[in-house]
Model the fold of this input.
Amino acid sequence: MATQTLYETEREELISGSEAIAIACAMADVDVITAYPIRPYDTVMQYVSKLKADGAFDCDFIVAESEHSQFEIVKHASAVGARTFCGSSGVGWFYAFEAITVTAGLRLPVVAMVGNRALDDPGAFGVEHNDAMAVRDLGWMLYWVGTAQEALDTALLAWRVAEDPRVFLPAAISCDGSFLTHSQAIVNVPTQEQVDRFLPQYDRGRLLLHPDNPITVAPQVNEDWLMEIRRQTDDAMRRTSDVIREAYEEFKQVFGRGDDSPFIEEYMTDDADIVLVGMGTLAMPVRVAVRRMREQGKKVGFLRVKFFRPFATEEIQEALSHCKAVGVIDRDYSYGSPSYGGVLFNEVRSALYDLDDRPLVQSFVAGLGGREVLVRDVEEMTQMVQDSIDSGKVKQVNTWIGVRE
Amino acid sequence: MSTVAVEVVYRGIFQKTLARNIVRTIVFAARKEGKIGTAFGRYGDSPERNGIPAKQFAIVSDSPEELEENLAVYEAREVDVTINVDDTMCKGIESWAWYGLQPINALTKPGGTLIVTSRQTADALIEDIHQKDSAYNLAIVPASTSFSGLWVYKDDHTDVRILGALARVCPELVRLDSMLAALEDQGWGGLKLTSARNTHDRLATRPVEPGEGSEDEPFSFDLPGWKSMEEGLVIKGVEGGTGFRGGSLGEGYDPIKSNASGDTSYEPTRNAVFKKFSTRSMRPVINFDTCIKCTLCWLQCPDTCFDVTPDGLYDANMEACCGCAVCEAVCPVADCITMVNESEFNDNNSQWEHWTKDKDSYHKWMSELIQVQKEKDATRSHGYHSPGTYEAESEAEVALTGDDD
Amino acid sequence: MTTMTQAPPQTVQDLPQVRGVKQIPVFEGFTSGHRTCQGCESALVMRLMIKAAGPRTIVVGSTGCMYVANTTYYSTPWVVPWMHTQLGSSGSAATGTAAGLASLMRKGKMQEEPINVIAFCGDGGGVDMGLSAISAALQHDEYNLLILCYDNESYANTDIQVSGSSPWGANSTFSPPGKVHRIMNHRWKKNTAPMLAAGHPDVRYIATACGSYGPDFTNKIRRALTIGGPTFIHSIDPCPKGWDYDPKYSHELGMLAVETGIWVQYEIVDGELILNGPSRAIARGIRPRKPVTEYLQRQGRFAHLTEEDLKFFQEKIDESWEKWWIPGIVPFGPQEEG
Done:
């Protein structure tokens, strides 16, 4: 098999996050992949199609006629037992929204990549997180990747967790447009043997749609049934935490890399007075700024949220319970939300409400439309949080950073 | 301070406008007495299906505050008056799957009234109606069942006659003068007012004692909890069919090739929960001796209701037949299949078994039924005929019931 | 480097053609216990479809009456495996199901065998919303699948609203005749099957059908499932609820639609047009078309039409038979010489 010649030995490659996920698709021996063009996620499909063309792996690669069909096709392939992958960006993700919604309701473990992109209008290619975030209430697991390496690793983790019969929920892997989808980095590509050891075959079991298992899937319900069905999905999402933890421990054993926690990354938070919180590639300038400020003696740390769903409430509470103030940086907006804060901000602030000794929490909206977040922006935000500590309260809850007045 | 609730139980689509006229007029009439009310259809019946039992409600209170206690519900918890506009539903009604056949008087309060449009006697009706623990009253509005299609209303005065009867049995809801005023407001004068007044004046009511009526146990059910429901919206399909009455299909059986022209008897396994036979207002009576085994009744039945007997005949299964009469329409033999009013029957027994056991007895039974059908209820039919026919029919109906004095 | 192509077209089941009603199988894969209307022709179409296809079949059904009325939770009328799909997704559901099976079988992850894949949709799901996905599915000649559009000429499930497949002038809850506008639906029924046939010349089988003709219907399903590649059948289903007639006449109205020339029965097999039954007799002049009034005046949805309206309807049907390049099917033709 060509697959084995490609991935016989562990090796380094200079690849983008999209390419890393395409390689993960091949190594996971995905059965059905659907594509539809939209920047920036579709780079993954360009690599997938090339891998298939070159015989690097065997899958049914279908170019759909719309994002809606793209997601419907993998949904139905998943129901008959196929491992699946697809993805989208921005308004394309929204075009598929009906299919995305029912995939979770049907408890089908589709894995999708979201190349995060601003929503139209106006047309814009740069990163914003609102596209992927729209599924936060629907039963999708939702992960924000920080590096190309993490993109590859997370894809493997995603199939493992999604296809676990205790879970059977879809998973979205969010990659910041441009910074991950179009930027190449050195990535350690594992061997096929490692992947096979970590990732069992997808077995739909009793829920398989097949003439040998004649079931009826998703009959119409009324008010006497839906609440129980919602509760089942809710329980499946509650179960994901343990399954993720278990899979991540095994991932670290098999592949020899990984953080302490699958849910969050903590950077210099131990003795920090101020902890900044963010997701995705924001982490890069923030970590730089944190190091510089530490050199200046400022006790600043950073917490990167990796899994947005399930939201690691307890871990985040624990990580933020010792600091004086928290600054949440959102690469998204939520017009008219509580305090006009970003989505992540309101989630974090809500998670901290139950703490006996709550830190101050402040909201920043930054880097919209793919605008770069600079080290000086991070320093400015940190100073504003420091001002809040000094005055004992947050005077202005939300601030847009780097916006021209 | 009081609240009065009324339900109209009707055949979906065929009597939708009729039911709507009744419940809306109740609210208008109550308004004349300074009361306030609401009218609504049971949401779960929508979208309605031809013939499938449905309900509409009118709830009237002395004050908005009192009315509010009865709002935002799908149906009234109990009703002062149940109105049944097709007497074949006295046997019970099955609206949604899993709830099974429920008594027509299930919601009727102790001491309340059941109004039925019927040409049967009270005793004959009570034989069909499930018994209750408490006493109630039965009032009969003498009339043939009023059916029409959706787009063309059959104005045979059934609506106003029911309303006149209602003012008689439940004056605390609304008095006759208010009812008549509300009818006039809707542009219904002259003969329709006379019909309402006459029905009011002539209405006969018969008390029904506790324990009087059919002893059949209504279907009972337990709704399972979310932990015992299968996940993924999956339910088991119906088992494949068997030979006649559960017998073997035989070694040579081939689902692709075995057909009814050979000696393959067949009985489909049926949905164990939803039967649909309470949708039936007529049932086919079959003359097996004149049957030429053309297969058309079996083949054209939308409800898979015919069992293929060992002698190559087709036995309409009365648990599954919903009385559409397509079999009668497609049968090429004159009088081989005759639709007979459902009220003539007290069981769902197999006609073929009766015929096989005792042909003389069967013929006697069959001939009598056909005769009764011809004499007593020749005009009974579903729905739309052709433009103009309702006017002629309605005049005949009004004259027949003696409302035009 | 080896060249890996998509899997070769899979093998198909042995589904022989039937000669007459008596060869239609006794097998039932769609049994009683659905919540459809009395006399529902679409329920009959479901039943005939699965009788023809047999038990080794997966059916996916898009939203519509045949979903909402058929499958009421915690019970089902389906014997064969069945799954819901979204309103506009019959094409993608068929593609996804067929692709999943093909991939798993090719890779040895699932026992190899020909499994029929059928996706159905109503006219709302097929003629309106799902047209683009159906078109896409018909481009995938590597998958064996059948898309069946059961056309009852309105969104009957949602309360009977006009669709792109509703006839001119029909009453519906979105096109009610009113005091000022008698005709609210000015659109002529979309010519769906010929559009798909013209647009997808590699599709080996596209047909129209009607449940009133049992053996013809059975054979069409079987041809579609055995010819190889994606196929499409458009079925006219009289709807006693939306069309407003006594349910016992469902069968007769289906025949009248054909006999008046309003609905044309045909198959397009490997690029060849074959007219069936009464349509063939009409086209050959062996049998006269019945006046459209025999069909229209049986239905409450046309009760408001005036003599003039009925005349207009008749003229439109006459035109389709007398002026079209292929009578009743293809409206355009080559420019006349000279």
Q: What stands out?
A: The first strand of chain B starts at residue 3 and ends at 11. Chain B touches chain C through 72 residues (CB under 8 Å). Residues 9 and 29 of chain B are 20 Å apart (CA to CA).
